[in-house]
Amino acid sequence: MSDDKYLIYGRNGWIGGKLINLLKEQGKTVVLGDARLQNRETLEKEIRSVNPTHILCAAGITGRPNIDWCESHQQDTLRTNVIGILNLADLCDQYNIHHTLYATGCIFEYDDKHTIENGVGFTEEDSANFFGSFYSKTKAYMEEMLKSYSTTLVLRVRMPISDDLNPRNFVTKIVKYDRVVNIPNSMTVLYDLLPVSLIMAERRLTGIYNFTNPGAISHNEVLALYKKYVDPDYTWQNFTIEEQNKILAAKRSNNLLDTTKITSALPDVKILDIHTSCDLVFQRMRANLEAESEWPNNLPKRN
To answer: How many domains is the chain partitioned into structurally?
Structure first.
């Protein structure tokens, strides 16, 4: 066993829980962080006490049930997503600890250069161009500041998908809607990419990486797979972005992220394209649900 020791923040969260399980399966030494990131003195004391080689941060406020919550809770959002994350990155730099931050790619929107039709994705060198929600604003500003820290790896997660129907799963969210927009987006299949993030941490990669499966998939394509494998009776309707914006407190980001950098940095690691990966997700989801005695009665219900 290596001497690596992983300190995890976001232990009670969806992604944090998956990371803990993955690390334990790999026989890694894992310590679960208790300190609140915005309390620098307590945070520093905990980091010094644990003395980790790696810190993985899946902590952050996304709001419940969605990012609209951040619009009316801006101070709470700032304390965690800005003050807390800066505290952690700064302390990791001070003590030369590798820091992996599970951030977001929801800081871009299609524009004249990056269109749905031309398939040109945003790269890691592009600066944010989407500020339609307070959540995205905090993440965009934070990414710029984190460029100053040489020990931090920033992973741009987008619309994360898992094999279960966890409430945080992008699939679980959209199947509850009567109407959805139908726009191709980059998405992150956690089954594929969370193990990749641990490889990146172990190799001490730093800087910003688009952390999605190659390619883009539309909402309709995702829901068609859900209907095919999980719920053949499921139906939905589409509406426009303009119609969607009327019922939301905050706008939503839609974009394609270029994955050249991550695939080039890890030539020995296979990352499936988003269409292949999503098909496999729903096959695994169907198998998992069939193993549960209450399926199909426990499928998500519309709000």
So the answer is: 1
Task: List, in order, residues 6 or more apart from 218 with CB less than 8 Å away.
Answer: 182, 183, 184, 185
Q: Which amino acid is at 119?
A: G
Burial 83-111 (b: 16+ CB within 10 A, else e): ebbbbbbbbbeeeebbbbbbbbbbbbbbe
Q: What is the pTM of this model?
A: 0.94
* Domain annotation covers residue 51: yes
Residue tagged 């334990």 (tokens): 24
> What CATH number did the domain enclosing 52 receive?
3.40.50.720
110 Ramachandran zone, left/alpha/beta (phi>0; psi -120 to 50) = beta
- 117 found inside a domain: yes
Per the DSSP assignment, residues forming a β-bridge with 98 are 54
Q: How far apart are CA 88 and CA 39, in angstroms?
A: 10
Helices (H), 149-259: 170-175, 190-202, 219-229, 241-246
89: domain range?
5-160+187-217+253-274
Angle at 156 between CA 175 and CA 44, to 5 degrees: 115
Residue 126 lies in a domain: yes
Span 84-132, pLDDT tens digits: 999 999 999 999 999 999 999 999 999 999 999 999 999 999 999 988 7
* Count of other CB atoms within 10 angstroms of residue 53: 17
Question: Do the Cβ atoms of 22 and 14 come closer than 8 Å?
Answer: no
